[in-house]
Specification:
A hairpin with a 6-residue loop joins β6 and β7. A three-stranded mixed beta sheet has the order 1-6-7. A two-stranded antiparallel sheet has the order 2-3. A two-stranded antiparallel ribbon has the order 4-5. The protein is mainly α and 277 residues long. The radius of gyration is 20 Å and the shape is globular. 58% of the residues lie in helices and 9% in strands.
């Protein structure tokens, strides 16, 4: 009886992932959210660059590194961390949206992006950009990580439209029944994460605007602790993404969060060398 009443009182979500389609072309809410994440991040970063007397041309160059690093890192991260057993035998499918079935190639698109892989790809992109342009690594990361949480919120909103990365069953009044998955009221884990990311963005943006940070790397370190700390905690209300995680005390998302949290603690705890005024 309790389960029946929970289903009746829960929010039912059955929105199609497709915004619209024309012939073989389709635009999904997830794609739109992903594009909005980059556009809004660019606009905010442009404001930061102008505040720091940096050129828009430098930001344009930087954006290319970040865009490529995010996509490659997120894709390879998913393939290596979550579905390695499959992709080790199908390596081309890591980077090509095709699969070989019944003697022919079929367009399948990319199914799977990992946020931790995206984070690694972004760091790699920053490193390459800094090496080419002689930009200070901590200077650019302190600015970029301000907008990343807001971008992450848009991505999680896209996951909500896709009815993916769902939460565990619950009888809370704001439970959501993802009808495209099953008929069980669940935590809207995607929305929890999106809300946390917006709060982190607000905190970091205000720190930057008020110059309430002590040293190079401070905002970067705080970002790592807050974002990946939130990710670690929220994994407890999420369904595991892959079957192999069922036997793990902490799932893959939590294990991959720990090194980022550790780096954040180091950045905050290290001695002050160049105090910012």
């Amino acid at each position: 009886m309790t389960m029946i009443s929970s289903i009746l009182s829960a929010i039912h979500w059955d929105v199609s992932p497709e915004l619209f389609s024309i012939g073989s072309f389709e635009l999904r809410y997830y794609t739109l959210c992903f594009l909005l994440a980059f556009i809004i991040s660019y606009v905010l970063m442009l404001r930061i660059f102008k505040r720091e007397n940096k050129s828009q041309e430098l930001l344009d160059q930087f954006s290319i590194y970040i865009f490529i690093g995010t996509l490659l890192g997120a894709r390879l991260g998913h393939c290596l961390f979550y579905e390695f057993d499959y992709y080790k035998d199908h390596p081309l499918e890591m980077i090509l949206p095709y699969t070989y079935v019944d003697g022919q190639f079929r367009l399948t698109g990319f199914h799977g992006l990992a946020s931790h892989g995206g984070a690694m790809g972004i760091l790699a992109g920053i490193y390459l950009f800094c090496r080419k342009t002689k930009t200070d690594f901590l200077w650019i990361t302190d600015r970029l990580v301000i907008v990343i949480p807001l971008a992450g919120a848009f991505v999680r909103l896209g996951n909500f439209f896709n009815s993916e990365i769902i939460g565990l069953p619950t009888d809370l009044p704001w439970a959501v029944v993802f009808e495209r998955v099953d008929n069980i009221p669940r935590h809207p884990a995607q929305l929890y994460e999106a809300i946390c990311y917006v709060i982190i963005f607000i905190v970091l943006w205000n720190l930057y605007m008020r110059k309430s940070f002590l040293k190079p790397g401070y905002i970067f370190g705080l970002f790592l602790i807050m974002l990946f700390g939130a990710r670690f905690v929220l994994e407890f209300v999420k369904e595991n993404q892959e079957a192999f995680e069922e036997s793990m005390r902490f799932n893959m998302g939590q294990l991959l969060s720990l090194p980022f949290i550790a780096i954040g603690i180091y950045l905050l705890a290290r001695p002050v060398k160049n105090k910012i005024t």
